[in-house]
Amino acid sequence: MSQATVASAGTSLVTDPANSVRDYQRSLARSVQSRTRADRPHEFELRGRTWDLLDEVFAPVYSPSTSVALDFLGWTDSVETPRTGSMLEIGSGTGVIAVMGALAGCERVVATDVNPQAVANTRLNAERHGVSHRVEAVQSDLFSSLDPQERFDLIFWSSNYVLAPADHHYASEHDKAYVDPGYATHRRYLAEVCDRLTPSGSALLHFSSRGDMNLLKQLAEETGRRLLKLVSRPVREDENMVDHLLLAIVPVAR
C-alpha cells in the first residue's frame, strides 16, 4: 500500500461520524488533556505499587491500556504468570510493564521508547522497585538503537494504535504515544520484529478498535506476516466501548 493510500485512509477515517472512536484529532485532544491537566500527579498507584510519573510521559492513570496489557501478559500484583528469559518492550512509557516483567522473572528486560522522558521514567521505576540490575532503558525508535545481533524471547508493544494522516507532524513527544501517522511505525514493527526473536520467541502487539484493523491486516500481508488474535477484551473508555486485542505476529510460511 502506498503512502498516498494510507494518507487517504486516515483522512476518510476521521470524517466518518460512525468512526469517531478512531478520530485521530480526538486522540490528540486526549493527549493534550492528559499532559496539561492541573491534577496530573507525579506518582500513581497501579497493581498495589506506587510508580513515578514524569512530565511528557504517557500517564496510565488516565487510560486503561497499561492495566489491560498487564492482564494480557498475566502480570499482576501477585505475578500469576512467571516468566524466564529475555524481554524487549517497545514504547515503555513509565516502565510499568518492563518492571513487572522483571518482577515476574525475566532475567533481562530491555525497555525502549522514542521519548527521552519516558526512558528516564522507566529507569526511575526500575530503581524504585529494585530491578534496575535487570531492566535496561534505551532511547530508540523501535529497534534502531539496539544491537542488531541481540535476540529476545518475548517482544511486546502496546502500540499508538490510532491512525493519523501520513503527513501529520507531532506537536509534542507526548502525542507520539497516541497516534501513528500513516501507520509507518506499525509497518516497520511488523516487518522487523520477527527477526529480533530467539527461535522459540514470541512477538506480541497490543492493539484496539481505536485503530484500523483492516489496514493493519493489509500491512501484515505486505510485510509477510500473519496476525493471530490471542485475547480480546471490551473496555469502557469514556462513553465508548473499546475492544482491546492481544495479537501474535508470525512469519508467513514461504
Q: What is the CATH-assigned architecture?
A: 3-Layer(aba) Sandwich
Helix content: 25-40%
Give the beta-strand count.
11
Reading off the top of the CATH hierarchy, the class is best stated as: Alpha Beta
- Count of helical regions: 7
Helix and strand content put the structural class at alpha/beta
Q: How many angstroms separate the termini?
A: 21 Å
Shape: globular
Q: What name goes with the CATH superfamily?
A: Vaccinia Virus protein VP39
Low-confidence stretches: 1-18
Radius of gyration computed on alpha carbons = 17 Å
How are helices and strands ordered from N to C? HHEEHEHEHEEEEHEHEE
* Mean of all residue-level pLDDT scores: 90
Explain what this protein looks like in three dimensions:
With 254 residues, the protein is an alpha/beta fold. It has a single domain (3-251), classed as Vaccinia Virus protein VP39 (Rossmann fold, 3-Layer(aba) Sandwich), CATH 3.40.50. 30% of the residues lie in helices and 29% in strands. It contains 7 helices and 11 strands. It has helices spanning 3-15, 24-36, 65-73, 96-104, 116-128, 184-192, 213-222; strands at 43-46, 49-52, 86-90, 108-113, 135-139, 152-158, 162-164, 179-181, 197-208, 225-237, 240-251. Strands 5-4-3-6-9-11-10 form a 7-stranded mixed beta sheet, with helices on both faces. Strand 10 and strand 11 form a beta hairpin. The longest helix is centred in the N-terminal third of the chain and has 13 residues, at 3-15. The radius of gyration is 17 Å and the shape is globular. The two termini are 21 Å apart. Residues 1-18 have low confidence and may be disordered.
